[in-house]
């Protein structure tokens, strides 16, 4: 798929709410593999709370959702994210009700609203678009409370732009595997950042965790959880302060204009609410489910 360029806009937009966004997935996309979201987090805060501040914002709004995907989670993705078919067994997959929750969440935020993700233009945003369209149809758009489209931007080019302020990051050497080299790398994995060469030192890397470790001298907590990666982005944007906010509101794209990562055939009607895994896979027999229900009914709390 063709990735959009994030050039400087001729019309800078004075943002009000920044939504740090990250997903964990079943793996990376390939010719024979369309990943699905297993976890997403939207961490929203006022742009003013990130300008010239020394503490994390006290006022935050957060949406975190986990999904049991319809496709198998790769073993590598499961190992990295900690999400698997067992601990997601009581979660539904990504359905229309999940999109409704996202839209209701966005309606509560002061506009203009901007999604921010690390390597989001190549991974997180196209994947979210694909999953939204698969359950809501190709004409569905995410809008803010004024019915204006949600915009999005990417911290990867932001951090490259401010490389000199990020403790010796070399903006000419990202340390990531090229497209030609990816065929020899075990795939898929679960995080949205590009795959790193094992021999690359972290001073040349724009991997989110490596930048965080260089700047703050410690690994960020809960790496490869959607919320953990959102908080790492938030902390780094806050570290850069007002210049980073100015850059973000001059380099953005309409989220609804992005090409989805893949296209799935839809029936033309939205899938309102999906089934739980045990309902759709029939892992347990009707008898065992009946027995379990009976046991729960007879349970006495002391």
Question: What's the CATH topology label?
Answer: Nucleotidyltransferase, domain 5
The secondary-structure class comes to: alpha/beta
Question: Regarding CATH, which class?
Answer: Alpha Beta
CATH H-tier superfamily: Ribonuclease H-like superfamily/Ribonuclease H
Order of helices and strands: EEEHHEHEHHHHEHH
Walk me through what this model shows.
By secondary structure, this protein is α/β, with parallel strands linked by helices. It has one domain (17-298): Ribonuclease H-like superfamily/Ribonuclease H (Nucleotidyltransferase, domain 5, 2-Layer Sandwich), CATH 3.30.420. The protein has helices spanning 75-81, 96-107, 124-136, 155-161, 208-216, 226-240, 242-248, 277-280, 286-298; strands at 17-25, 37-46, 61-66, 113-117, 151-154, 253-254. Strands 3-2-1-4-5-6 form a six-stranded mixed sheet. Strand 4 (113-117), helix 3 (124-136) and strand 5 form a beta-alpha-beta unit. Helix 5 crosses helix 6 (226-240). The longest helix has 15 residues, at 226-240. The radius of gyration is 20 Å and the shape is globular. It starts with 16 loop residues before the first strand and ends with a helix. 36% of the residues are buried. Residues 168-201 and 282-302 have low confidence and may be disordered.
């Amino acid at each position: 798929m063709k990735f959009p360029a994030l050039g400087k806009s001729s019309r800078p937009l004075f943002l009000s709410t920044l939504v740090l966004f990250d997903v964990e997935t079943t793996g990376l996309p390939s010719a024979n593999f369309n990943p699905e979201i297993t976890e997403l987090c939207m961490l929203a805060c006022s742009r003013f709370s990130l300008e010239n501040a020394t503490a994390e914002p006290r006022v935050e709004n957060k949406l975190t959702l986990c999904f049991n995907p319809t496709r198998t989670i790769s073993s590598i993705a499961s190992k990295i994210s900690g999400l698997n078919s067992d601990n997601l067994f009581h979660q539904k997959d990504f359905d229309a009700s999940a999109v409704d929750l996202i839209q209701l969440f966005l309606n509560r935020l002061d506009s203009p609203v901007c999604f921010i993700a690390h390597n989001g233009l190549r991974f997180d945003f196209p994947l979210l678009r694909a999953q939204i369209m698969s359950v809501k149809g190709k004409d569905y758009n995410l809008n803010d409370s004024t019915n204006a489209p949600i915009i999005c931007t990417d911290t990867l080019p932001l951090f490259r732009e401010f490389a000199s302020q990020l403790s010796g990051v070399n903006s000419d050497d990202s340390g990531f595997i090229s497209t030609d080299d990816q065929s020899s790398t075990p795939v898929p994995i679960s995080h949205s950042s590009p795959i790193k060469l094992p021999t690359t030192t972290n001073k040349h890397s724009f991997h989110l965790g490596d930048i965080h470790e260089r700047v703050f001298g410690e690994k960020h907590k809960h790496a490869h959880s959607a919320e953990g990666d959102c908080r790492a982005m938030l902390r780094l944007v806050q570290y850069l302060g007002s210049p980073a906010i100015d850059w973000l509101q001059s380099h953005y794209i309409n989220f609804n204009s992005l090409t989805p990562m893949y296209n799935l055939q839809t029936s033309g009607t939205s899938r309102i609410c999906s089934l739980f895994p045990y309902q759709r896979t029939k892992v347990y027999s009707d008898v065992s489910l009946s027995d379990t229900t009976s046991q729960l009914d007879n349970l006495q709390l002391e």
